[in-house]
Amino acid sequence: MSIPATDKIVATAATKHITHSFDVSRFKGALRSLEIGQQMGKIYNMEFENAKYWIAQGTEHAQHIAAEKARTDKVYSDADPRGDIGYAFCMNQAASLARRLRKLDSKLITPGIQSYLETLDQIAAVYIWLKSFKPIIVKGRKPNPNAPPPDLTNMATCAICFRQQKLVKENNELVMVHHGFHISDGAGRYYGYRAGSCQGVGFQPYELSSEANEAYKKLLGAQLLCQQEFLQKLNKGEITTLQYRVRSTGDITEWKTTSRGDSDWDKIFKKELNEAESNIKQIKSDISWQDDLIARWTPQSVVFDGTTYQASRG
């Protein structure tokens, strides 16, 4: 399926809607990149979404501009589709609005509305074309053919997140570099995403020691005790006020405090009770996992800068 006709859409590009016009080169470039992907039988999701963004910018702009000659100052009833001309719009609404407008008496179809309908038809065709890509979309981002091969040297297994991470030598000891739980895919490829700081950072890799697991187990034990004490106080009615998050916007978090007897108390109290019970269950599971890792640890070796290092302790 080739690129649908877009001459009606492109013709509106130079006319500003309020203060903006749309970038024809990006619009046409997006269409062409999708056409190439279609010809190859494969397109990566990030590439598809980027192209779809610029196409949507163009189609939305086009319907606003085309609507200017189709609209009047008259106020229409909710049932009259002329009242929807030019308002909030997505590509998937084009076909529906066009069908509704065509049900009008032919005497009511002005030249402006006719031109608007032709624009809607092209937008609807583009939308159908975009939907046809679903079977060939490949998850992820298109690989860079010029990217250097991943550096798999000086790596070992983090004892906590159990992913392959880089090693660094500190105080004559090999330890894990700073990383988050999802920074690596396990094959040396790094994406720059860090979910906090892994508890294995600064400790020896699992091949050389289970010391990180011992330390993490101790931390989990303290967290478990804290959660158990909190749950006990909730059940005994010793806690009479609770603070909960209302919303977060960027770096700003809005909190609200509720007290026993308030209209929202029962809901927040039950939520806190369920979360405490869930946290306790999860922490106990994590402790059990660390116990298992400690119990089955066996000394291994790792290679760092060409030198083989043997495990010295558990």
What report would you give on this structure?
By secondary structure, the chain is α+β, with helices and mostly antiparallel strands. It has three domains: 7-138, no CATH class; 148-207 and 307-314, no CATH class; 211-296. It has seven helices and nine strands. The protein has helices at residues 7-10, 24-40, 45-67, 94-102, 111-131, 211-236, 265-295, and strands at 43-44, 137-138, 155-157, 164-170, 173-176, 241-249, 252-259, 301-304, 307-310. The strands form four sheets. A three-stranded antiparallel β-sheet has the order 3-4-5, with no helix packed on it. The protein is flat. The model is unreliable at 182-195 (pLDDT under 50).
Give the SSE map.
Blueprint: H1 7-10, H2 24-40, E1 43-44, H3 45-67, H4 94-102, H5 111-131, E2 137-138, E3 155-157, E4 164-170, E5 173-176, H6 211-236, E6 241-249, E7 252-259, H7 265-295, E8 301-304, E9 307-310
Parallel strand pairs: 1-2
Antiparallel strand pairs: 3-4, 4-5, 6-7, 8-9
